[in-house]
Every structure is written in structure tokens, then in C-alpha cells.
Amino acid sequence: MKTFVITRNEIALFLFLSLFNLHCAPKVYIIDRQTVLQEQAAGDWPDFEESLLQSLKKKNPVPLPQTSTNDFEKNQPLYKTLNSEMSVEK
Amino acid sequence: MKILFGFLCFFIFFEITWGATPDLSYPEFNSLKKLTLGPDDQLDPFVDASHRFLIFTKRSNMITQLHIKNLETGEIQPLISPEADSAHGKLNQKGQLVFTYYKYNSFGDICWSQSSIRFDQFPIDEKQIKCVQKKSSPIPLESSQGFWHTNEDIIYLERSSTHSFLILYNTIRASRKVLLQTSSPLASPFGSLNGKRIVYSEVSHKVPQISILNIITQEKLIIPSSLLPGISGLMSLSEDETELYFSHYISDSNHDSVIDGRDNATIWKINLDSLKKFLTTSSKDDLKVQQLTPMNYNCSYPFYNHNLLFLTCAFQGSLDIYALDGNGSIPKTWNFKVLDEALATSRTYPDRILILNTKKFLTTDINEINKINQSLFYYHLFAEDYQAAQFYLVKSKFHIDPSVYQLLEVLLKALELEKNQIDNLITIPFKESMTALQRKITPIKEPNTFKQLTSSLLQVILGKTISPANLHTLIKNNNRPFEYWLYYRLMLKIMPQNEKNLPDWMQIYAKILTSKTLTLETQIFYVGENLDFLGQFPIEKRKDKLSELISLLKENNELRSLIENEIHVLNLISAPDEKSKMAHLQKIDLLFSHFKTNYFIRRSLNVRTLLNLLHHQELKYLNITATHWLRDTPKSSTEFSYARHVVIKAALAQAYGYWQQQKPRIAADYFFQSLSLTDDVESHSGYINTMTEIGQKKNMQDRMAYLTSHDRIPNGSKWLEIILLLENSDKKQFIKNLDTALKKISNLPADFNDPLKYLLTGFIYLEKIQRTQKGFEFHPEYLKLAQQNLILASDLSRENPRIQAAALSNLGLLSLWNQNYGQSIRFLELRKQLGFEQGDKNPEYKYFLWLYSQALFLNNQNKMAKETLEQIPNAQGIPEVIERIAFYTMLSENWTQSLKHYQVLEKITGQDFVTINEPSRSKIRLSKAYVLFKLDQKIEAQKLFIKILQQKFQINSNSSPFRKMEFDSKHFNSIVYGFLSQLGTEKERILFLEKRIELLDEDLPALIQAQMKLAEILTVSDLNASIIVMQKTLADCIRFAEENGSLGHTVFKTLSNYLVHGIFHSDQYSNINSKDIRHQISKTLGALNKQMETANLTALKNQWHLTYLWNLYQEKVLKEGSSTRWRNDLMQSSLTEKIHQKDPQALKQIQDKVSEWESLLFPSLQ
Question: Which of B850, B856, B913, B1091 should one mutate to test binding to chain A, selecting the residue with the greatest count of A CBs within 10 A?
Fold first, then answer.
């Protein structure tokens, strides 16, 4: 796939041109500097990335340390004790 | 032993929940059923008579647009084209739509569809839409909120700045009739189809009030504004026009009549015959009005249809549309006995207020009503709704001592003022208002303690210091109950709850708990406060303090038992072995049995025990206690649903605990325990996963089949089918099953609104994105659906951190893929706060930090990205992690440190990273060589750059969500040549630049730049060659300008450099044909001239420079024009004037620079 890397300043021009050349306009993606730097000068680790995806894509609830769930639990209405009506008189 | 214990618990549990009666029903509030799904706001529902279509307004990105939902299929479509805003949609019997359209003017038009709407033809064809012709008026008229009066007639609201009109418009004859004209603002008109009544809101003396107009008899009824605290909002009528449903803001905190999640919007119902009777017979009875939703749901826009109430509530994160039983949250079958029990078992003040209002609606006993009004005063006060509390205080006026009443009035006003203070700032108006209130207290003599406490609270609110000792003396054991509340509130304000003040606080609690005037429930509340406060201290200290308290509570057997129980629980927690723990558990159990019939004590014993066991992760005993709670709670009790929740939570805590300990078999039993009672989707998921993990899939299916055949798990059986589809280990089959699973999810019943449904749907779209993604291109619809479902899962799981953690993890990934790095960081930060089981030993933790650092890096936070990676345990042993640390350190420009990291990586992956696959190896070499270059280690850098060039790449072109661009070896090598051209001898630099130029034919800006660099180097050694390169650069520049326009940095820079080169070497350039340069200069300067009016200072300066250079080039190289003349022309040009206007200093700087430059270039001119 051919990718055209452009700066944000050139977007308007591309969009304008694409209005008149719909049938042959290239697909234009805005790619930030950091992504380009990473693509050019950082290592690719496909196995590591695959394991990462398997580990972080979630279809089930995540077991958490009890301390995290405790904070949630403590504030549940279930455990609340209410003050009751009282009297302003003696 | 633990396994046996697990089964034993399950057995007991099974007996309790199923053995006695198979009926799963128990009394609880009618629940809201969600019909639309955020994250955008969706409001103002209308449902057609057949209950097939829901029409609503969706607000998204400042666009308001009518949408329609097919309630049978769940499909949602825009009803009106999005090119203009639309709102207030309603259908007549023929299925024609009337709505407000903002297409033709911003004041809105009333429009309708000429034929009935069809679900396969949305948005409605514009040709089908007809609008009411506006009456010509010198003042703009706002038209809105139309509804069908008959199948032909529309009634709508027309408003100017001075008048409001209700208009009846006939769509066939195009005739209009004014039904009502008033100078006060009207809002929200509504009437039933073929009805006689119209309800609307009318502002009278600045207060909106609800009016009901009979359009036949012109009879008008007005709901008294004194009926409820706060102000009324939107309304609708039942089909038979007997009942009016209206929203009411109990405390419109910002006086905007808009639900903003803080206004306590509630829905109420009033019978119009009762209203008429009340208004016409001067009855002294309270007018009956029924509260339908609790305050904390924040519901408005009621629409009643066929015993269902459709509402808009700010309940779960966004404004959404819900359906509720026509009788509201309280089931119609609840009698006074159930209501009283529900009042006792309720856990929030809004619930208590709803129950009390329901009792008030049902009772005719005037004494009971007075009592309820007093109770409502207290609960609104506790809920910090001071305006509402004030309302009920007035209602209770004749039952309270006048001095006490005055003090309470002052107190409520002061608390209201304090609540509305922004950031607790004491402003001058605030101070004045508070001082005025303080003055009202002074003349009051008795009751003195009450007065002193109120006065002290006002002073504290004003920021003054009060001595706790003075307040202690006011409190004995026989004060008025309310005085203890005031005293406690004051103490909370003036004394921090820390260790330093522990003795004082114990004294305060002792004073309150030894009171002889407080009710048991109130005393239990203060015991709970005390035990919560002590929870921050070590167990032994807590036990000491509790023992001291016990000695003070000799006379109060019940409270003493609560404290004793707390000590038993703490003993259990700190006991060294199971045997001693069981001994303490027996003591706890004895207390539970003793107070079996005392509801408040029993509940408090349960709550405190569970909270302590949960906090200290005593999961086994937690489960036993929870099971006992359920065992002792009759199913007919309103407490049962709470006890049931506790058991689920305890079972899930146990299940996850065992799962974490790698004991899936026991975990499965606990999951089964929970699912068999509750049909809870999370428990089903856990059970399926754990049973699959231990190879008991068949057994699991059999057990589920049994439960399904007995109709025990309607949710679970459907869920099982879906989950199993996605458990398939065959990758091809898994991909196929994604669509099948989606189809099955869409076929789930409309009320299956579990957050896991949305988590799974979001996950499937995430998978689909990953599998269909090509580089930067991915399916926008998949992205939208993944985002929508995952955000919803996160919203709905605010009480379930496990599901929330999963949704946040997915959202972090998704946002990163979608290049929304800031958002990705936000989601991942929230995920991080929830923690990881086993902490940093969890394998997931490494991947999470890697992803988080990736998001930080892409968001330009290189240093933080590096620091995040360094948190990975054993980071220096993982090549992937070291490489990224080195890379991020390099980007943080810490060259020495980065080199060290690359050297560590070399220790693992061999000299020059030889064991790493290409193209990774070369990329890492490039970075290391760059670091060496920056550290001025030129020889090493050059060697490594050359080594990269010797590599022939075997490219793996498979892209992944993390690698979206195909590796371009040609471009990569051109970069390497670029670096090499900055190293070595002049000859080498020229050679590498030429090599670079060879590779840059498709990247014109880089090619032009490289050629200019080459020309610059060649100028010294081979001027002719440098001029040839310059000519080629000009030709490329012209080519670039033709493709990209004559403006821009590349063109400007090339032309400037060309002209300067020419001026410097005018003799050589004078023989070159000037056609090309003339042509391009004329185009560029022409373009610059055209945009001069709107150009910024930099663009104007560039234009000036280019004009200047071109004139100088003409003079010096082409021998055209006179030096004096063109200089004068330029100085008097509109361009020079424009620069001068924008910044006189800028012009001076240009001139100074030019003369400095010319003095060097042409010394003879000086």
C-alpha cells in the first residue's frame, strides 16, 4: 500500500484537490511526527505485540486485587447506615 | 479442606435459595429499562400507540437531530437529514411526523411529513416535508414544540420577546387559529391526540407553573406552586386525559430548569379530577400528588403511553431514555406494611423520600401526613437539599416551638448559602447575608443550647474559630435529639478526624451514644460513624478504644453488642489459625442469632462484619456471614434484595480469589453458586471460563442445560451460547464466529442490559478492526461501534471495577489505534488506578506499561514514556523493553544514557544487534548510530551507518496495529545517506549526497533540499557543477510548484537560494537562460500578491525578501533596471506599507539586515 505522509498544513490543499479528482485521488492520512520516527528508527517486536494484544484485549471481567474492589464496595449504598428522623423537641 | 468447605457453602446456599421455594421474585423497586445508549445525550421521548417506534432527540457535537428507534429490532436511524437541527418529534395515528425544524431560520419552523413515515426510508425525503408558513411580523417569532391535536391539526407554540401564543394549525386548509395569547412566557405545551386539554408551563411572578386548558370550555386549572418544593418543568398527559405527568426539580441548584445531574429532577403524577375538586371546593386537604422516580435518578421529559412511562434520566453518565412501569419506581402492589419495611431497609435518603411521598399520597390520615412532612424535612436536610427542607419546615410550622422554628429557618438558610458558595470562598455578599442571619438569632432567648449550637455553626461557616471545649459543655445525656446532630456536624467541621484528636473524638462519640433521647436507629448511625472513624487505626488500638466505649455503654445492651461484635470480628481477623478464627466466628454468630428479630441491630452487625472481613480479605468468613444474612432474611422482605446482592458479591470475591490462586475448580463452584441464585451474567462468564480452563466443558454444559430446562437461567443460557462461540481455539473459526456472536447479541432481549453485553460487543468490533485494518485504514463503522459499546460498558459498570477495568483496557487500545493518544492515556490512567492482581508480578502488567508508555510517547511525552517503561520489573532483561527505553531516551536527547541502553541491548542481542531480525536490526542500528553521531563519535557512527547500507532487507510487509506503515528500504537508505553526508571528507560527503539524491526521486521536497546542500558544497570545489545542480533544483522546484502550488516553504526557499547563488556568481549566471526563473518568480510573486490582503507578517516579510532578491538579481545578473529606481519603488510599495502597518520595527530590521548583507556582498556600494 502506498502511503502519502503529509503535514497538517497541506491537508486543506489535498482535500480541495480531492473534490475534483474523486476517482483517482490517493488516500491521504495525517501521520504525526512521533509515529514516523517510530516507524523509521524503533524496533518492531511482532511476537511481543501479539502477546500484548492477547493480554490486553478483554472480553471478560478482569480479576483485580481485593484492595481495589474494597474501595468500590465501601461506598456502595448496600453498606450505608442512614441517620433517622429525630425530634427538635425534648 | 477448602474444596470441601466450598461445596459445603454451596450446599447450604442451594438449600436456602432453592430448597424452600423456587420463586425467584422478591420485593424491590421497579427498575428503569434503558432504551438508548450514550455516550451522546438522548432525550425527549415519544412512543407511538403500537409501542413500535421511539422518537427522540439526539444531541451530539452541538448538533440536535431527531432519531427513531425500532423497539422491536433495536435499530436506530436519523429521522431527519443532519443538514439542519431538528427536535420535538411526534406522530399522529396515520404515522405522520410533526417536528421543529431549524433549516430555514434559527427561530425554528413547525414542519410535518406529508405521508406516513417508513422505517426503510429514513431520513425522511425533504420533498415530503412541509412547513407552516410563518406570519409576517416585525419581531422574530420563535416556533416550536408542536404536537398533533387531530390527524390534520397541529398545535404549537409561537413566541416573541413580548408575547406567547398557542396556535392551532390545519395542515389541509393551511389555516391558523390562536388558541391562547399571553404576555407571560409559555413553554412545553402538550396534548393528547383528539383530546380536549392542553397542558403547558406559564411563568407567573417569575415562577413557572403548570396550567391545564380545556380548549372546548376554556376552563383553566393551575397547579398551585406551593404543592411541592422547587419548580416544575416538562409534562405530558395520559391518553384519557385524567392523569398529568410532570417533571419537577426539587432543588434547581442553578435555576436553569435543565437537568444537569445536580437538580434532583423527579417525575410526579397528579389526577386532574382531584385537582379540579381541590381548586373548586376550597378543600383544606392536601392535594394528592404521587412521586414516581427518586431524586437521584434525575429524570425529566415524561411521556406516558399504555401503562409505561418513558423518561429521560441523567442516571448512568449521559442523558438517556428509559422506560418505567406506569406506576413509577414503587410497585403498585406495595401496601403500607411493605412501604414501612422498605422505609426501614432503604439505604439512601432519596429512596426514603420517595417512599415517604408514596405513603403521603396513599394516606388520608391528616396526622400521618403531618408526621410525614416532618420526616421529609429531616431526610431532605440529611440529603443536603436545604430548599426542600425549608419547604417541609414551613409545612410543619404549627407543630414546632416558634423559637425553635426560627432557629431552624436561619440554620437552613445558612446551610443553603454555604452550599452555593463557590470553592468555599467567603465573599463580601456572603458575609453580609450570614451576618444578617446571625442578627436574627440574637433576640431569641430559649432554648439556649439550640441557639448556641446554631450560632456556633454560623460562625464556623463564616470561618471563625470555635473552641471544642465550649461545645462539649453544652451536651449532656438529655439534649434535644436535633442538638446532637448540630453538635456532631460542628465537630466534623472544626476537628480533623486524625490520631491527634482521637481522645477528643472518643469523648464526642461517648456523649452522643450515652444520650437518653436518641432513637435506636440514630444511635446505630453514630456507632457506624464511630466504627468507620476507628477503621483508620491499627487493630489493637481499635480494640482498646472499643473496650473503653463498652464500659460507658453498660446500660445499652444493643449498642454494647454492636461494639462487642466489632471486637470479635477484629479478633477473628488477627487470629493466628483457622481454629481460633472459627471460635471468634461462633461468638459473632451467637450475637447474630440473639438479635435475629431486631432489624436495625441485625443489619448493622452484618454490615460491620462484612466490611471488616472484606477489607482484610477474609473471604471464607465473608461468604459464611453473607450466607447467614440471606438465611435470616425472609424472601418477602424488602431487605432480601440487599442480602442477595451481598451474597453475590461475597461469592464473586471468593471465586476471583481462588481463580487468582490458580484454583479454578473451587472458583468455578463459587461462580456456580452465584449464577444459580441470580442468573448474573458476570457469574456465568466466570463459570464458563473456569470450567473450560479445567477441561470440564461438557460437565458445565450439562449443568447449564439442567438449569435452563428448569427455566432457572434465562440470561445464562443465551449468554453461554455466545461465549462458547468465542472460546473456539481455531483462529479461522474464531473469525467466522465473530459475526455469528454479534448476531446472537443483537437477538438478546431488549432488557438484557448487562455491561458485559457491551463489553463483549466492543471486544468483537475491536477484533474486527484488528483483522480488517490495513495500515492507517480501518472500518469507521467498526470504530464507532467499538467505541460506543465500550464506553457504555464502562458507564454501566461504575459499581463493578472488574468490568470497568476490562472496558478501560480495550478503550486504551482502541484510542491508540485511532491516533487519539491523549484519550488513550486518560483511559489507561484510569485502568492503572484499579490495580493488577498480583501487582507487578502479573504478566499483564508488563504489557500494560509497554502500551501506556507507547501512548505517552506518541503524545510527545518521551521522558514519561521512558520512566513508565522503567517501572517494568526486570526491565533490563527484556530486549523489547530495553530497546524502547533507549529509543525514548534518545528522543529526550539524553545521548549518553541512550547509548548505555543500546549497549545493554547489545549484550543480550549480540554485537550490533546481530540476532535481531531485519528490518528491526537496521532501525535500531540507525538510532544507535545517530546517538553516536550526536555524541561526536564520528568514526563509530560512520562505521555503523555504512553497516546498515550493506544490509539487504527481507521485508515482512504484514502490518499490525502497532506498525501501520510498510518499511520503505529506499527511503530508509536515503536517511542513512543523509547522515553520512554530514560525516567524513568533502569528497565522501559529495558522494553520499549524490547517493541520497538518487534515492529521492519521489520525495521532491527532500530531493530539492539535498540538491541545494550539494550545490552549496560544490560551490567551493566545482562552481560549474554547483550551478548545474542549482539549475536542476530550479527545474524540480517548478515541477513541485506545478503539483503543489507556487506558495509554500519549499518554493520560497529554493527561489531565494537560487537568486542568492546567482547574485553571488552573477558572471556565470548571466549566460544562463532566465526563462525558467522569470516564469516561476512571476507565478510565486503573483500568488503572493493575490493573498497579500489577508497574509500574516511572516508571509509579507517573505514576499518582500523575494521581491528584493528578484530585483537585485535582475539588476546584477540580467542587467535590467536601475538600482535606485527599483529600490525606491519597493520602499514606496503597498507591500512595504503593509509591513510597516503591522510592525514598524519589522521593516526596520529587514532594511538593516539588507544593508548589512549588501555591504558584505558589494562593498563598493558603501
Answer: B850
Asked if pLDDT for residue A30 goes beyond 80, the answer is: no
Task: Give, in words, the CATH class of B43-183.
Answer: mainly beta
Q: Give the CA distances from residue B286 to residues B231, B390, B862, B1069, in Å, rounded to whole numbers and listed in that order.
A: 18, 18, 68, 103
Nearest Cα residue to B772 out of B759, B786, B751: B786
* Domain chopping of chain B, boundaries: 43-183, 192-317, 332-393, 400-495, 498-596, 836-924, 1021-1166
- Minimum CA–CA partner of B516 in chain A: A90
Instruction: Please name the residue of chain B whose CA is at the shortest distance from the CA of residue A3.
Output: B965
B355 neighbors B28 (Cβ within 8 angstroms): no
- Domain membership of residue A36 (yes or no) is yes
Q: Establish, for the pair of chains A and B, how many residue pairs have beta carbons separated by less than 8 Å.
A: 248
**Nearest C-alpha of chain A: how many angstroms from B685?**
7
Mutate to test the interface with B, among A82, A87, A89 (most CBs of B within 10 A): A82
Q: What distance in Å separates residue B863's CA from the closest CA in chain A? A: 13
CA separation for the pair B247, B301 (Å, rounded): 7
Separation of alpha carbons B472 and B506, rounded Å = 12
User: Total structural domains in chain A?
Assistant: 1
- Nearest chain A residue to B803, by CA: A61
Helical H segments across B495-618, by residue range? 502-513, 520-534, 539-552, 557-574, 578-594, 599-615
Residues of chain B contacting residue A36, judged by C-beta atoms under 8 Å apart: 965
Quick check: B406 and B444 in contact, CB under 8 A?
Answer: yes
The pLDDT of residue A10 is 41
pLDDT value of position A18: 36
Residue A3's pLDDT is 42
C-alpha cell at B748: 438478546
Q: Which residue of B has its CA nearest to A13?
A: B1044
Pick the residue from chain A with its C-alpha nearest to B515.
A90
* Residues A81, B517: C-beta atoms closer than 8 Å: no
Find the CB nearest B517 among A46, A81, A90: A90
Is the preceding peptide bond at B919 cis, omega within 30 degrees of 0? yes
H-type alpha helices, chain A: 11-20, 33-41, 46-56, 66-74
User: Which of B449, B450, B471 lies closest to B460 in space, CA to CA?
Assistant: B471
Which fold does the domain B836-924 belong to in CATH? Answer: 1.25.40
B588 touches B608 (CB < 8 A): no
Query: Least CB-CB distance to A34: which of B807, B858, B1045?
Result: B858
Single out the residue of B953, B995, B964, B958 nearest to residue B978, CA to CA: B995
Does residue A2 carry a pLDDT above 50? no
pLDDT at residue B22 in the model: 34
Q: Do A80 and B348 touch (CB under 8 A)?
A: yes
- Would A28 be classed as within a structural domain? yes
d(C-alpha A66, C-alpha B839), whole Å: 11
Q: Which residues of chain B have pLDDT under 50?
A: 1-23, 255-257, 259, 1165-1166
Contact yes or no for B685 and A74 at CB 8 A = no
pLDDT at A28: 62
Q: Is A1 among the domain residues? A: yes
Residues of A in contact with B528 (CB under 8 A): 81
Q: Where is B248: in which H helix or E strand?
A: strand B243-249
What per-residue confidence (pLDDT) applies to B968?
Answer: 79
Domain containing A27: what range? Answer: 1-42
Backbone angles phi, psi at A86, to 5 degrees: -140, -165
| Alpha carbon distance B808, B1005 (integer Å) | 42
Contacts of A49 in chain B (CB under 8 A): 960-963
- The residues, ordered by sequence, that sit 6+ positions from A84 with a Cβ below 8 Å of its Cβ are B378, B519, B521, B522, B525
Residue A9 lies in a domain: yes
